[in-house]
Amino acid sequence: MRKQIDGLATLVQQQFKLDPFAQAIFIFCGRKRDRIKVLHWEGDGFLLMYKRLEGGSFQWPRSEEDVRELTIQQYRWLLEGLSVEQKTAIPTVTARQL
Q1: pTM (2 decimals)?
Q2: What's the rounded mean pLDDT across residues 88-96?
Q3: Domain residues of the chain, as ranges?
Q4: How far is CA 60 from CA 5, 23, 46, 68, in A?
């Protein structure tokens, strides 16, 4: 968790072969899984968010090479310390025309 914006952007580009300037967020987790950093390009600069849990740990994938796409709901679950693979999630309902 020592890397800052430039180091994380380079990691996204070189190790994961992804574009750090894409409309996406990139989430990195510390070794103890109690801290995460979120990198996001806003069009005029990078935003770096940092969260440290005071108790517990993030439900982070075991593989260090695991890159995956998350839904907004899965991202919220992750930030709350929950698993991104909730078995009893309520499905999203779309509005119907009357």
Answers
A1: 0.77
A2: 72
A3: 5-79
A4: 21, 22, 23, 11
